[in-house]
Write a structure and sequence with these properties.
With about 160 residues, the protein is mostly helical. Helices cover about 65% and strands about 5% of the residues.
Length: about 160
């Protein structure tokens, strides 16, 4: 049961940065046309790559739930792709992308400090609280909302 709660915390953070996006919109941003504007091609590709790596609550590898080595590998990929997305993000969204990436890095730091062992972390209330605080950070949620609004208008699925 406690392992499930850790999984839910992780899943909630992943949801924040996935391409699923927010339903909010702004009229000043481009509307998707079915093709990617070449100006945003690298951004859309980086976003799709990160989204693919984050499938499921423990990245693309469900074995990461019980295997710390797999968890470490999954989060190394997620962290690397998060950094690549920040680099590819348009200037007007750099602050939001950086805020989101910093939450991924903070979560990875917690995982690293606990040897990527989710089953053991689930037993530690201080770790669960720390992960919960990261995943519920209002600044990250706001950044994610703005970022995903732009993403859904700019990058057709």
């Amino acid at each position: 049961m406690k392992a499930r709660s850790t999984g839910i915390v992780i899943a909630s953070l992943i949801f924040l940065v996935s391409c699923g996006g927010s339903s909010q919109s702004t009229d000043s941003q481009p509307k998707p046309t079915g093709t990617v504007n070449p100006q945003f091609e690298a951004f859309c590709t980086a976003s799709k790559n990160l989204d693919a790596a984050m499938v499921g609550p423990h990245g693309e590898n469900p074995a990461a739930i019980t295997d710390p080595a797999e968890m470490k590998t999954a989060w190394a990929s997620i962290t690397k792709l998060s950094r690549a997305l920040v680099v590819a993000t348009p200037t007007e969204l750099q602050a939001d992308a950086t805020t989101m990436m910093n939450s991924i890095i903070a979560m990875d730091d917690v995982f690293k400090a606990n040897s990527y062992n989710l089953l053991e972390m689930a037993k530690m209330s201080d770790v669960r609280i720390e992960l919960n605080d990261i995943s519920n950070d209002v600044a990250v949620k706001e950044a994610s909302s703005r970022f995903n609004t732009f993403l859904t208008k700019t990058c057709p699925k």
